[in-house]
Design brief:
Layout (H helix, E strand, L loop, with lengths): L1 E5 L13 H12 L3 E5 L2 E3 L2 H6 L11 E4 L2 E4 L2 E3 L4 H4 L3 H14 L6 E5 L1 H15 L3 E5 L2 H4 L6 H13 L2 E4 L2 H11 L4 E2 L16 H8 L6 E6 L8 H6 L8 E6 L5 H5 L8 E5 L6 H6 L3 E4 L8 H8 L4 E3 L5 H5 L12 H12 L5 H15 L2 H28 L1
Parallel strand pairs: 1-2, 1-7, 2-5, 3-6, 7-8, 8-9, 9-10, 11-12, 11-14, 12-13, 14-15
Antiparallel strand pairs: 4-5
Helix pairs in contact: 1-17, 4-5, 5-7
């Protein structure tokens, strides 16, 4: 069975951490004998805009590469700043994808698009053009954030959800939110994680910190992700002013907030910025940590939180997106977004052993193992593919019979 994946994020040599959860799932599907081809359209602003502002420049990515036996295409499409707010790029993306399909003679049985906007909008056009069934996975921001941008953004969101042959949500809360906004039910299937890669290592924490050049005499609160305001990195840095001197914050990643964070009075003392890391280093930073923190303003189902839980690292996270699904009966541990007070309170709670962390970590780990194992999720996803293909085949035969 051949599946065309359409997504706006997928890892590359240049950006190894971009959409790792997609590659993890694709590799698990490949092991089950499915042939997956990935098209990850790359936005490029007009030349005049690229000349005006550095952030508008396109990062050089290969049009074609084979990653772990999977063909990945990255056709360029014309983009505009803030396009998801007012100038939906559905048609431009679909045109770039259709050209790639034609030029490379790509064959597939169905389409699996990720995020209602913009991939879902493009998949809707391609599905109609090529008469192929398509499945849409909702990830969080495409339900909670994008539709509120404008009337046209909400219209694009509604069109994607209602035109898909089947809709998947990565969490129960997300499915409920999508149902409330569109009236359409979706099948709940969490993100698949390769949990075998994220098990507590035998190597002592001190040794790992030495390799990573992190202080051995501090309690480390670690963040891993893009350094942007919306991830709560400023609040996390600010919490240092109210935490004990033996605590430090490690912000792993890169982004526009990097320069501001380097101006923080604790930079190099109790605030550390290792920069962008490859995905295989995530485990090392989690192993070196006493607490993992992700105080985002919004999220879908953050894979790095699942990875931290898999390694039994205590987690501080905001009650946003699909995170409450993940924490279940321990939702009371989740904190408020945009709140330094909440971060400080929960760090001190964990430090003072207010909660029975060993029991909490064991139960969260069990939930993750039961629901997020990539092998299990690939098996369920394959069944959805085959069911969709079978239903499409029946419908086709019915039409011919009429």
């Amino acid at each position: 069975m051949k599946i065309l994946w359409i997504t706006s994020v997928y890892p590359s040599k240049e950006q190894p951490g971009n959409g790792v959860f997609h590659e993890t799932q694709v590799q698990a599907l490949k092991k089950r004998g499915l042939e997956i081809t990935v098209i990850c359209p790359t936005p490029q602003n007009p030349a005049v805009l690229r000349a005006l502002k550095k952030t508008y420049k396109r990062k050089t990515l290969p049009f074609y590469e084979v990653r772990e036996g999977v063909k990945v295409y990255r056709p360029i499409y014309r983009a505009l700043p803030g396009q998801l707010r007012w100038a939906q790029p559905d048609k431009r993306i679909a045109k770039a994808i259709l050209k790639t399909i034609q030029v490379k003679s790509l064959q597939f049985d169905m389409i699996h698009a990720h995020f209602a906007m913009p991939s879902g909008g493009a998949a809707h056009i391609i599905s109609k053009e090529l008469q192929k069934p398509w499945l849409l996975t909702l990830h969080g921001s495409d339900v909670h954030i994008y539709p509120a941008f404008s009337r046209s953004a909400n219209k694009a969101f509604q069109r994607s959800v209602h035109s898909a042959d089947e809709v998947i949500s990565i969490g129960r809360h997300l499915a409920l939110a999508a149902k409330e906004k569109t009236g359409r039910d979706s099948f709940v299937l969490p993100i698949g994680i390769n949990l075998s890669r994220f098990q507590a290592a035998a190597l002592p924490k001190e040794n790992v910190r030495k390799e990573l050049k992190l202080p051995s005499d501090k309690q480390l609160i670690t963040f891993i992700g893009r350094l942007v305001k919306e991830k709560g990195v400023y609040e996390l840095a600010e919490s240092l002013n109210r935490l004990p001197k033996n605590m430090a914050v490690v912000l792993v990643g890169d982004g526009p907030a990097m320069d501001d964070l380097k101006k923080h009075e604790q930079y190099g003392k109790r605030l550390f910025l290792p920069g962008q890391i490859s995905n295989d280093k995530v485990k090392d930073y989690l192993q070196a940590s006493d607490i993992f923190a992700l105080p985002s303003y919004s999220e879908g189902m953050p894979t790095v939180v699942i990875e931290a839980i898999s390694m039994k690292v205590p987690v501080i996270c905001t009650a946003v997106g699909g995170v409450p699904d993940l924490f279940g009966e321990f939702n009371h541990l989740l904190i408020k977004p945009k709140s330094v007070d909440s971060i400080v309170e929960r760090v001190l709670d964990y430090h003072s052993e207010k909660y029975d962390l060993p029991i909490i970590k064991d139960q969260l780990l069990q939930y993750v193992q039961d629901n997020f194992h990539v092998g299990r999720n690939a098996e369920v996803l394959e069944k959805r593919y085959r069911k969709l293909a079978w239903n499409e085949g029946k419908a086709s035969l019915s039409i011919k019979g009429d």
